[in-house]
Amino acid sequence: MAAGITPKFFGQYLLEKGILGKDQLIEAIKYQKSKILKMGEIAIRKKMMTEKEVAKVHNEQKRTDMRFGDLAVELGLITEDQLKEILTIQKYNHIYLGESIVACGHMDKENLAKQLSLFKEEQQQVPPIEVMIKENIPEKKLVEVSVDLTEKLMLRIGDMQAKSGQLLLEQKESKNMGITVMMDLKGDISARYVLNLSWDVAHQIAKKTFKKDDLPFDGELIKDTSQEFVNVVCGNVRAKMLEGGKTIEIVPPVGLTDKDAPIVKFNDNEQGTIIPGYTTMGNYEIAVLTKV
Amino acid sequence: MSDTKKILIADDSRVAAHLLSEIIESIDCCEVIDNAVTGEEAIEKYKELAPDLVTMDLSMPGIGGMEAIRQIIAADPGAKIIVVSSLGGAQDKLLEALEAGALSVISKPFDEDKAVGVFKRLLGI
After folding, report:
1. Ranges of each domain in chain B
2. What is the structure's pLDDT at A5?
3. What is the pTM of this model?
4. What is d(CA B43, CA A120) in angstroms, rounded to the nearest whole number?
5. Of A277, A238, A174, nearest to A6 (Cα)?
6. Where in chain A is the domain with CATH 3.40.1550.10?
7. pLDDT in the model for residue A136
8. Residues A113-168: pLDDT tens digits?
9. Which helix (H) or strand (E) holds A284?
10. Looking at beta carbons, which residues of chain B come within 8 Å of A18?
11. Half-sphere exposure of residue A110, counting CA atoms within 13 Å on the CB side?
12. Which listed residue, A35, A237, A238, B35, has the most CB atoms within 10 A of its CB?
């Protein structure tokens, strides 16, 4: 069975397999969450903050979308080092979803061990993020994850080995190679993922998506398939970034052909890092645009 | 002859909708009856067509898939909705969708065997 591109969480595995029902999963996740020590509780217990200071942060949180820890540091109530200590304590004082499922009575320990072993076996096939960028660029982690997952999905969906080239920094525009698809990323990171595909690469993705090697050239269909490809890439980028604590919302992608826009100009307030990509079918470019 | 199960696909990508149709129609007694491309349209078509099951993309124009799940469940608490997600293993979105009333999830890119398993289980076939 094909492995995913990004790790799945244990609950989704159990749900998809029909081992756990949705109500049971929701109950177990809620029970697990209820067992997580709140950052404010830890800060009080460690005498880093008073109850009044914790209440002040909670109050401030109503006016901003900042997290508790970042806000407490910004307000000068704790230091960066104290925040790290709180996060470490929180990390080591939680229960696993499996334990929660057992505690809720939805599975016995023996079955849990069996399911965990099967789940781990499936997850071992999920490759780690392998792209490492040396240059100091804005939102480096996002760029690494975007490049890595684009390459992996080129192989998984398009059956093409893809390899990235040297970064082009601070670009303001890009020549459209055939189809350029853009997707806005909002939330903890505000950025734009742009995939510029040559027609040959885009056509190959369409052929493999529809499992038809003789798929006729149809510009509109190829554009739609490229948009769907970007949708899958960015969805997986979102999941990967969430693992690192960054929440991103994605919006439906927009596609432009070289007829619509021979040159794709980036917005004045955007800075683009372009990463050229090469496959045996042709070339492509990934651009990650961030606000300057 | 067994009853045919009617499925509504809510997905703004005609490519994803096509791929899902192929998976659904590979199951003997399942038929795709329509394709909605916005959250609003999904609600309208659900009320009009009364499908046995809806596949719901979360990232759609208009009110989006999450709100569409809430409104369909508000109108029909027994509605069977599967979330079709390109969001990898993102626990937050899945939990939100399940709490809104979805029953299960299928991830993109599709794993046909797993997807067929989810459809059959929810439709009791």
Report:
1. 5-119
2. 63
3. 0.78
4. 38
5. A238
6. 140-291
7. 83
8. 999 999 988 877 777 777 788 888 888 899 999 999 999 999 989 999 998 888 88
9. strand A283-291
10. 117-118, 121
11. 0
12. A237
Interface of B with A (CB under 8 A): 12-16, 18-19, 59-61, 85-92, 94-95, 98-99, 102-109, 111, 113-114, 117-118, 121
Would you call B61 helix, strand, or coil by DSSP? coil
Verify whether the Cβ–Cβ distance A26 to B60 is below 8 Å.
no
Q: Are A236 and B86 an interchain contact pair (Cβ–Cβ within 8 Å)?
A: yes
Contact A228 B13 (CB under 8 A): yes
- On chain B, the residues whose CB falls within 8 A of the CB of A236 are 86-88
Location of structure tokens 């651009």: A287
The dotted CATH code for B5-119 is 3.40.50.2300
DSSP-assigned states of every residue in A76-131:
TSS-HHHHHHHHHHHHHS---HHHHHHHTTSS-HHHHHHHHHHHHHHHTTSPPP--
Question: In terms of CA atoms, which chain B residue is nearest residue A20?
Answer: B104
Between chains, do A26 and B18 touch, taking CB under 8 Å as contact? Answer: no
The interface pTM score, or ipTM, of the predicted complex is 0.80
What's the topology of domain A140-291? Chemotaxis protein chec (3.40.1550)
Of A22, A231, A236, the CB nearest to B13: A231
Q: What percent of chain A has pLDDT over 90?
A: 58
- Which spans in A93-249 are helix H? 97-103, 109-123, 140-156, 199-209, 219-243
Of A16, A25, A235, nearest to B87 by CB-CB distance is A235
C-beta atoms surrounding A205 within 10 Å: 26
Beta bridge partners of A198: A178
Provide the sign of the torsion angle of the four alpha carbons A188, A249, A197, A1, taken in this order: positive
